[in-house]
Amino acid sequence: MKVSLDVDRKHEETSVTIHCNEMDDSINDILAFLNERKSEFIIGRNGEQQQHILKPNHVHYFHTEGETVIATTSDGAFKVKEKLYELEETLPSTKFIRLSKSVIANLHEISYFEPSFNGTLAVHFKSGGKEYASRHYVGRMKEVLKMNRRDN
What we know:
It is built from three helices and ten strands; from the N terminus they run αβββββαβββββα. By secondary structure, the protein is α+β, with helices and mostly antiparallel strands. The strands form two sheets. The chain has a seven-stranded antiparallel beta sheet with strand order 2-1-5-4-3-7-6. A three-stranded antiparallel beta sheet has the order 8-9-10. Strand 4 (68-73) and strand 5 form a beta hairpin. It starts with 24 loop residues before the first helix and ends in a 7-residue tail after the last helix. The relative contact order is 0.12. One of its GO terms (molecular function) is phosphorelay response regulator activity.
C-alpha cells in the first residue's frame, strides 16, 4: 500500500482520498478508524439531572423505547438524544450493526446468538441482555460475521 501525505497551510480542512481496485479488510479498517473519529463520545442521561459521557466502544447496544433511544452499557441504561439513523451514520460499521429497525448492536459485545421463530435471530449480549435481529437484517449480520463462509 502506498501512502502519500500533503501537509500545507493552504488546505482549509482535512480530506482523505483512497484509491483502490477493490475493497478489502485493510481499507475497511482504515474507514472504520476514520469513522470512529466522528463519534468519540456520546452524552447519555440516566435520570433527569445526571449526564454521562459514554464511549461508543463501551455501549453494548442502542435500542428504542417509543421515541427515546437508550444506550445500554455495563453501567446501566442511558437516554441519548441521537436518533438510531444518526448513530448508524457516525458509528464505525465494522463494530456496530443494525439488528432491526429499533436496535443497533456493538459486535464486540455479542456473546452468542440462536435461531428464533420466523427466520429471526435471538442475539445475546455479554451483559445478559437479549435483542432480536429481524429477517431483513440477518443477511447483513451473517455477511459481517462471515457466518456463511465454508471451509473445505
